[in-house]
From TrEMBL, chain A:
It comes from the Eukaryota. It is found in: Endoplasmic reticulum membrane. Heteropentamer. Part of the GPI-anchor transamidase complex, consisting of PIGK, PIGT, PIGS, PIGU and GAA1. Interacts with PIGK. One of its GO terms (cellular component) is GPI-anchor transamidase complex. GO terms for biological process: attachment of GPI anchor to protein; GPI anchor biosynthetic process. Component of the glycosylphosphatidylinositol-anchor (GPI-anchor) transamidase (GPI-T) complex that catalyzes the formation of the linkage between a proprotein and a GPI-anchor and participates in GPI anchored protein biosynthesis. Binds GPI-anchor. Pathway: Glycolipid biosynthesis; glycosylphosphatidylinositol-anchor biosynthesis. It is a multi-pass membrane protein. The gene is gpaa1. The keyword Hydrolase does not apply. This is GPI-anchor transamidase component GPAA1. It comes from Dicentrarchus labrax (European seabass). The chain crosses the membrane at residues 20-41, 360-379, 407-425, 485-518, 525-547, 581-603. Keywords: Disulfide bond, Endoplasmic reticulum, Glycoprotein, GPI-anchor biosynthesis, Membrane, Transmembrane, Transmembrane helix.
UniProtKB/TrEMBL annotation, chain B:
It comes from Dicentrarchus labrax (European seabass). The gene is pigk. The chain crosses the membrane at residues 348-366. Pfam families: Peptidase_C13 (PF01650). One of its GO terms (biological process) is proteolysis. Heteropentamer. Part of the GPI-anchor transamidase complex, consisting of PIGK, PIGT, PIGS, PIGU and GAA1. Interacts with GPAA1. Interacts with PIGT; this interaction, via a disulfide link, stabilizes the expression of GAA1 and PIGK and links them to PIGS. Gene3D superfamilies: 3.40.50.1460. This is GPI-anchor transamidase.
Length: 604, 374
């Protein structure tokens, strides 16, 4: 007889499952966390290598000479920027035309759902200027993009200067097989969004193979930082990072990722913790779902893009702009050799340092171990539901309750939780005007505080839900609800982890213990407290503090709270401006799921 | 056409010289090949395979320099490197770094270009089965007195050569094509040179007579590229062909260098891989085979002031070791290598095993089940 078809053996298996359920869950959780921490340990990672044959090695000769001239152009740009009080469109158009590019401008205007206090803008109007360098002999079927942001104030002037210097140098070469689009975008991401969404008609370039965004605010730099995380945690093809790293090594520029320099002592504790910090920074940035550089919006359209930031810190060895120009020239020459889009290397990875990576095949088991806990719990509940309770005091009524635990008693919490989620999603924006009239707060604060208000109001739901329900809840009732909730959470977290592993993993870390231990029979006050601590909102609060710690900029509680509020407002703005999915995911799916567990806790 | 002029004979009385001249004439007309052909194939496309086109063009250049005219060369290049958009020096293909030697020149005649370089077209060229509309420049119009040089380069593996990233030619197909050529008397002697990874596997299966083969690497070894040019951004040549080109640059139409020197080109110290060669099917001694027998088009011309009366059929001066009459029986040649058979357990063992299983089955469950079977 088979293992599962033999009733004796099945009973034995099931009893094993129910007896050992909690220990196995605990072990799985520890194993998942340990696996995740072990990912940063260098012997478990792979060295990065160039996968694309067409890009080969770094064998090009970089000859960009005009670094000083680029700096002069940058200074001119800064002067014109001050005079124009924004983007000096006419000067840029004239300069790009003088360098032999086909210049186009694009006006855009956008009204934010509520004022952005970080960047102090509400109604945004701007112009993007881009010049296309046509490939001398090639058909106009493919393009590469180099962009620099036009930021108010004194930053990124050198970036625009270098962009124009490179444009002039590239114009004199005849080996370009793709068009190169030099883009200066205003109002960083909003301008970039405008350019990309309208690009099929107005950009008139071919299909874009790769894009690099340059941020450079000083005449000399000490290191170059690579930023990969894009919208919704999407990452460019690893080959782009490999290309950058290979050229940094060839030219001899210090390169960093997450602002952290690589260390060689992986076997020491401090070396390991350094790798863990770098990896955790990447995980946090990816989980936030916001684009961390101007490149972040390209990734959705299958255009591999990265941002390169020049950093000037207190190191002795400085690199000048000519060297940065050579690095970019080398990268673009190699990208020029591409025949197809970058597809040979990984799209899902984590980088504990610039020369090592962990691919999806290695990091997914960490999440899998956490998801197994949910499945074990579901199995346990299924078994409990299948076997009738031993006591039969009131024979007839129990039977009735056994046979139909009441679809209504399960459906009601589900519907109400999701309605609360919908309220959390829509109310803050809808009622901001009303809130501003009633209370002395600004619009942004109104939105954020409304969101927090709705969130906290959801905590009071169980008492009200039970008033609505006619009868009392039953033992079977909460089990069915928990089974549904656990499976729902498993599917939700699984789908999230596939798209954005970091977000899925962080949510799993906090929500899986909640799902595992919550029943109506645990001590109420303590469990309620733990549930609130592990809820998505508090996870976000702790993440904010943790993120600041990782960046070595620890904040006090006041500052942290204000930062937390701004993170919520930025999240909502990201969703409405660029289509980031984190806010709707949390509001419409994760929060209702958590509310279901809160309902189970207060089940009567 | 280049001439080697033998020593002029002092004129003397016609009667005395006639039989000697007739003998010499006999020797002259029975000496091997009368014309040379070359089939040069580059099988890879894409910019990063620049070196394969440069390889083929280097051999083309040497072969043309040594006398084979364009009408006797079939040049197949799978991609256009000289006019590729990424070439910083358009209309050139360089074989040496610092752009010393432009092998593209201005009189290159490519017969099969781009997507026309396929396995089918290559085999049709070799066997001569081309549609009637094919122009002469695309045909290999060789006869039984032609010495043919075949040069292949590209990406290969154990037993195959990749054509254009989409198909392959196997060593068996190639050997069969050469056998077709032999049976149709399309060559006198054939020299096969291949510069790919694991190139020696391509000549393993040859079984037709008068084939000599050279390869740049043995089975299991990779052929390496020689040097990158940083201005162009690609590797310019493969090592084996680079040293082959250097060797050939020293050859002139009157050289007496023989094949044994060619086998020594690119030892392991320079090539990193071990070049190989195969001469067992070749009936002459490689030491007596001149390089110009294959790479050049050398005409032997004897100047005489006498009139020779060729009324009688020319008698063979000596009994040649090889002749077209005694062809090697094909059926014996095909089974050169013993077929690799997978080991199976002996038949009796399998029968016994099944009997045992049946017996155990019936013992356990009783003989009554037998009736269900019988």
């Amino acid at each position: 007889m088979g293992l599962l078809s033999d009733p004796n053996r099945r009973r034995a298996l099931i009893s094993l499952l129910t007896r050992l359920n909690s220990p196995i869950c605990v072990v799985c959780y520890m194993a998942g966390v340990a696996w995740f921490m072990g990912l940063a340990f260098e012997p478990f990672t792979l060295r990065t290598y160039m996968s694309e044959n067409a890009m080969g090695s770094t064998m090009v000769e970089e000859r960009f000479p005009a670094g000083e001239r680029a700096l002069t152009t940058g200074r001119e740009f800064s002067a014109h920027k001050k005079k124009a009080g924004g983007m000096p469109v006419d000067w840029l158009v004239k300069t790009m035309q003088a360098r032999g590019l086909e210049v186009f401008t694009q006006r855009f205007s956008r009204k934010l759902p509520f004022p952005d206090e970080n960047k102090e803008r509400y109604m945004v109007k701007g112009t993007n200027v881009y010049g296309i360098l046509r490939a001398p002999r090639a058909p106009r079927t493919e393009a590469l993009v180099l962009s620099a942001p036009c930021t108010p104030g004194d930053s990124n002037n050198q970036a625009v200067g270098l962009l124009l210097g490179l444009a002039q140098y590239f114009r004199n070469q005849i080996y370009w097989a793709k068009d190169i689009i030099f883009l200066v975008n205003e109002h960083d991401l909003i301008g970039m969004q405008a350019c990309i969404t309208f690009s099929p008609d107005s950009c008139r370039g071919g299909s874009i193979q790769a894009a690099l965004s340059l941020e450079l605010s000083s005449d000399v730099i000490t290191s170059m930082d690579l930023v990969l995380e894009g919208l919704n945690g999407q990452l460019p093809n690893l080959d782009l990072a490999n290309l950058f790293y290979a050229f940094c090594q060839k030219i001899g520029v210090l390169c960093t990722i997450q602002g952290k320099l690589q260390r060689n002592d992986w076997d020491s504790v401090s070396g390991y913790s350094h790798s863990v910090q770098t990896m955790m920074l990447m995980v946090m940035k990816q989980a936030s779902g916001r684009p961390w550089g101007d490149h972040g919006l390209f990734l959705r359209y299958h255009i591999e893009a990265a941002s390169i930031k020049g950093i000037n810190s207190f190191r002795q060895y400085k690199t000048d702009v000519t060297t940065i120009g050579r690095l970019l020239e080398g990268m673009y020459r190699k990208l020029n050799n591409l025949l197809e889009r970058l597809h040979q290397s990984y799209f899902f990875y984590l980088m504990p340092s610039l020369s090592h990576f962990v691919s999806i095949g290695y990091y997914m088991p960490a999440f899998g171990l956490l998801a197994v806990i949910l499945l074990l719990r579901a199995l346990d509940l299924w078994v409990q539901l299948a076997t009738p309770p031993p006591r039969t005091e009131d024979g007839i009524t129990d039977k009735e309750q056994v046979s139909s635990p009441g679809v209504l008693s399960v459906l009601t919490p589900l519907v109400i939780s999701h309605l609360t989620g919908v309220a959390l999603y829509t109310l803050p924006i809808q009622f901001q005007e009303m809130a501003v009239e009633q209370f002395p707060v600004s619009e942004t604060e109104a939105v954020v505080l409304t969101a927090i208000g709705v969130y906290t109001a959801g905590l009071a739901l169980p008492h009200n839900t039970h008033r609505l329900l006619s009868g009392e809840g039953t033992e079977q009732g909460w089990r069915v609800l928990k089974l549904v909730a656990v499976l729902y959470l498993a599917v939700l977290l699984g789908c999230t982890a596939l798209i954005n592993f970091s977000l899925g993993f962080i949510l799993a870390l906090t929500l899986v213990p909640v799902a595992a231990f919550v029943t109506p029979h645990v001590p109420k006050v303590l469990s309620a407290f733990i549930l609130v601590i592990l809820s998505p909102a508090c996870t976000l609060l702790f993440s904010v503090f943790f993120f600041q710690e990782l960046q070595e900029l620890p904040v006090s509680f006041q500052e942290g709270w204000l930062l937390y509020l701004s993170v919520i407002s930025q999240g909502i703005l990201d969703h409405f401006l660029y289509g980031s999915l984190v806010y709707p995911l949390i509001a419409l799916l994760v929060y209702p799921c958590w509310l279901l567990f809160w309902n189970i806790l207060f089940w009567k | 056409v280049h001439l080697t002029i033998s020593q002029s004979r002092a004129a003397s009385s016609a009667n005395h010289i006639q039989p000697l001249l007739v003998d010499n004439a006999g020797q002259f007309f029975s000496s091997g090949h009368t014309n040379n052909w070359a089939v040069l194939v580059c099988t890879s496309r894409f910019w990063f395979n620049y070196r394969h086109v440069a390889n083929t063009l280097s051999v083309y250049r040497s072969v043309k320099r040594l006398g084979i005219p364009d009408s006797h060369i079939v040049l197949m290049l799978a991609d256009d490197m000289a006019c590729n958009h990424r070439n910083p020096k358009p209309a050139t293909v360089f074989s040496h770094k610092n752009m010393e030697l432009n092998v593209y020149g201005d009189d290159v005649e490519v017969d099969y270009r781009g997507y026309e370089v396929t396995v089918e077209n290559f085999l049709r060229v070799l066997t001569g089965r081309l549609p009637p509309s094919t122009p002469r420049s695309k045909r290999l119009l060789s006869d039984d007195r032609s010495n043919i040089l075949i040069y292949l380069t590209g990406h290969g593996g154990n037993g195959f050569l990749k054509f254009q990233d989409s198909e392959e030619i196997s060593n068996v197909e190639l050997a069969d094509a050469f056998e077709q050529m032999w049976q149709k008397r399309r060559y006198n002697e054939l020299l096969f040179i291949i510069d790919t990874c694991q190139g020696a596997s391509m000549y393993e299966r040859f079984y037709s007579p008068n084939l000599m083969a050279l390869a740049s690497s043995q089975v299991g070894e990779d052929s390496l590229s020689h040097q990158p040019d940083l201005a162009i951004g690609v590797h310019l040549m493969d090592r084996y062909t680079f040293y082959l080109l250097e060797f050939l640059e020293d050859i002139h139409p009157a050289s007496k260098t023989n094949m044994n020197d060619l086998f020594k080109v690119c030892p392991k110290s320079q090539c990193v891989s071990t070049p190989g060669h195969r001469t067992d099917l070749f009936l002459r001694d490689p030491g007596s085979v001149l390089i110009t027998d294959f790479f050049g088009s050398v005409r032997k011309v004897e100047i005489t002031m006498e009139t020779i009366n060729l009324t009688d059929p020319i008698k063979q001066v000596e009994q040649r070791k090889y002749s077209y009459v005694d062809q090697l029986p094909v059926s014996e040649i095909i089974h050169q290598k013993p077929k690799q058979k997978d080991w199976h357990p002996p038949d009796g063992f399998i029968l016994g095993l099944w009997t045992l299983i049946l017996l155990v089955f019936f013992k356990l469950y009783g003989m009554k089940h037998l009736k269900h079977i019988f």
